Amino acid sequence: MLLNILLQRKEESYYLKISVHQSSHNHSLDKYAYRRLPKNRLYLPAEELVTMDMLRKVGLSQKKILRYIRDNTSSEPDMIDVHNLLAKLKREDERGMSVSDRVAETLGRFCESDRFAAAHADIDQEGSRRISMCITKQTSHMRVLFSSFPEAMLADATDDTNASRYKLFSFLVHDTMGRGQHVQHALITDERAETMRLAIMQFKKCNSSWPDVRSIVVDKDFTEIGVFKSEFPEARALLCRFHAIKYIQERMAKTDYGLDALQRERLKPMASLIVRAKSQEEYNQCLDYMKHELQVENSG
Predict the structure, then answer these.
(1) pLDDT for the residue 160
(2) Cβ proximity of 183 and 140 under 8 Å
(3) Which residue ranges does the record assign to the ZSWIM1/3 RNaseH-like domain (predicted)?
(4) Degrees (nearest 5) of the Cα angle 118, 121, 125?
(5) Residue ranges per domain, the chain?
(6) Per-residue pLDDT at 298 exceeds 60
(7) pLDDT: is 217 or 27 the higher one?
(8) Which tens digit of pLDDT belongs to each residue from 91-142?
(9) Which of 3-12, 78-87, 226-235 comes out lowest in average pLDDT?
């Protein structure tokens, strides 16, 4: 590239003037190079774009769409071109739709792909905004699992699972191998009793075996215990062993009991022993030791 630039003055202002500009390409110029430009690799008329959108909606993979374009059109795209095209078609398809509308559409497609699946969204209206308070999803396999093993159920909550900080509220059961298997997933906005009750009510609606639940293990959130006790009156709500031990140790660490560091260290293993006690006698022995260390009368 050759540039000839002049500095000129006009009254009180200075400006640059390009008098000579000579440039050349640093690559070969031919038909192949022109066709390999990103904007030329994939050029489809309107009727072909309609076909691409249809293939996207039926769930055809990007690899198969790429093969279709190369076999049926004059374009020679790369995989990234197909990826960008499908993303553009999806954005245009979703334009004008609210998040709640897209949630409903997604759940509808989910149920269409699995005949006996169940999905539901509870929408709350706040002024002009529509907020999905609870989104539940259950495959047909999950429903079969629960109907086969309804006696013991585990509830687990995971915080901040997406950019909107939704909680993943999941139900699990034990299969014949003793492994935990999910039987429902629910995305909830918060862990208030009213919100969790929405997920539980939808679960009961879609699973007729729910009265057979006899025990429910929950994590450290005591709000869950109250909700499950009210919705499953015949079941016993239990705090999971890990969080029970952690809760006892945290209580012992509080300064309200006036324990010194040595006492807290001696009592720390007792939290695990008392939770894991296999008999009433073993439990009473651990409890008596803790009362002795805490200087609490046995009658209390």
Answers:
(1) 77
(2) no
(3) 110-238
(4) 165
(5) 2-94, 117-239, 242-294
(6) no
(7) 217
(8) 887 676 667 777 888 888 888 888 899 999 888 877 777 788 899 999 999 9
(9) 3-12
Give the integer Cα–Cα distance in Å for 48 and 69: 9
Alpha-carbon distances of 146 from 127, 281, 282, rounded to whole Å: 39, 36, 35
Contacts of 89 (CB under 8 A, 6+ apart): 49, 52, 53, 56
As a CATH number, domain 117-239 is 3.30.420
pLDDT tens digits along 211-238: 999 999 887 666 778 888 889 999 988 8
Structure tokens at 127: 């002024």
| CA 1/CA 265 separation, integer angstroms | 77
CB 197 within 8 A of CB 227: yes
3-state secondary structure of 198: helix
